[in-house]
Amino acid sequence: MFQDEQFRLKVGLAEMLKGGVIMDVVNAEQALIAEKAGAAAVMALERVPSDIRKEGGVARMSPVSKIREIMASVSIPVMAKARIGHFTEARILEALGVDYIDESEVLTPADEEHHIAKRDFKVPFVCGARNLGEALRRIAEGAAMIRTKGEAGSGNIVEAVRHIRTIVKEMKQLTVLGKEELVHEAKNLGAPLELVEWVAEHGKLPVPNFSAGGIATPADAALVLQLGAEAVFVGSGIFKSEDPEARAKAIIKAATYFNDPEKLLEASEDLGMAMPGLDVSKLPAEELMQTRGW
Amino acid sequence: MPKKVGVLALQGDFEAHAKALERAGAEPVLVRTAEDLKSIDGLVIPGGESTTMLKLLDFMNLKDPLREFAREKPVFGTCAGAILLAQEVRNPAQESFGVIDLTVDRNAYGRQIDSRVATIHPAPEFGERAGAGDVEAVFIRAPIIRRAGPAVKVLAEYEGDPVLVEQGRHLVATFHPELTQDSRVHKLFLSKL
């Protein structure tokens, strides 16, 4: 059975982050701003996705000294990113004591066929997904949290919406199928039957399902939460905006009151400029981050 | 009529608590505003990030209503909830409601890799009031109660530290009973309403 004691602990921390906002930070100063605003966790990385996109080159795990500095500065959980398939970066992050590892398409993949065998680790992993098959493959490998990928660093919510809608719809469809149809569906999804049956019975993923990739405003955060996400990751959206502190607070407020238009209005006032956005449909295929992962 | 029990739903595992309350026979109500506090018989402050919850309580002007509520009705805090209800919080120091006379160190077992599932042997009184037998305790980046005042009754310990305590109408656990299928701790809270 996939739900052993280690798995429950890993999922348990994800449960604690629900309704919260996890913010990308590149140094201790940003981490403190995020914590002070009320972030539920921070994600330590070398460059935020929009800078990775701009500057190009190989994006790797953040320098250890940076992550250490961030861990020392805040009391909330600290996550860090490892490249897809780069299990030694992940081992280093585990030895460092980060609270969650994001095996992330935002960094340059280290393996174009395999992801990390995540069950072997004591530290929990979160992975990106665009559809149910991808999500269940990552869970089969040991991911204890899924985040829909969206398109990182774009400031454009369209891909995040596409991915959360796709996963929610594919889960709904499974709930009406018979046993023999589930075997066929497992084949189509490229996912283990045990997990497909679990989703068919419960109508949701066996791990928390968060949203990422393109969230730039309180309204964006509320939108994906209304569509079924249980918490949000905000990358470039905070620290590439005009007033990061105000925007961080506003998005946190929106994550709690995502169903309350009056409170959302309040959260949306006087925020300054959002980060500049990109038209994802105009991006050349090789610049898309969401297609990384297998 | 089932008891209406609120779950503070600003951030954290409030849904897990709502389900656990349902299993224990109560009617859960998600609480996000001061208005929501008016209709409930007791309140659960769930696990999550205590710093985040404090910020949101501040934003929403919920601190005073919550203090007032605790003066009249039972409150049950787990993990982050325990931290918010304590008299004194350390590592690092932060504001708290002082509802229960405890000194609590945050993240005292270490980071996530030090999180654990443990079997604890509650005091006989817990067995008498809630049902006999061991309790499976899920500790996630959990706090440790370093000092419990004279008015605090310890109902269970783990490695020599109190992990389930009560003071008058209020109850505190440093672990997460809502993440197991065992309803006894929630039933104990309902018996105090």
- Mean pLDDT across residues of chain A: 95
Structural class of chain A: alpha/beta
Given as residue ranges, the uncertain stretches of chain A (5+ residues, pLDDT < 50) are none
Name the CATH superfamily assignment of chain B: Class I glutamine amidotransferase (GATase) domain
Short description:
With 294 residues, chain A is α/β, with parallel strands linked by helices.
Set out the fold topology.
The complex is a heterodimer of chains A (294) and B (193).
Chain A: H1 5-17, E1 21-25, H2 28-37, E2 41-44, H3 49-55, H4 64-73, E3 78-83, H5 87-96, E4 100-104, E5 125-129, H6 132-141, E6 145-148, H7 158-175, H8 179-189, H9 193-202, E7 209-211, H10 218-226, E8 232-234, H11 236-239, H12 244-256, H13 261-268
Parallel strand pairs in A: 1-2, 1-8, 2-3, 3-4, 4-5, 5-6, 6-7
Chain B: E1 4-8, H1 14-23, E2 27-31, E3 42-45, H2 50-59, H3 63-72, E4 75-78, H4 80-85, E5 86-90, E6 100-105, E7 116-120, H5 124-130, E8 135-139, E9 144-148, E10 153-158, E11 161-167, E12 170-173, H6 184-191
Parallel strand pairs in B: 1-2, 1-3, 3-4, 4-12, 5-6
Antiparallel strand pairs in B: 6-9, 7-8, 10-11, 11-12
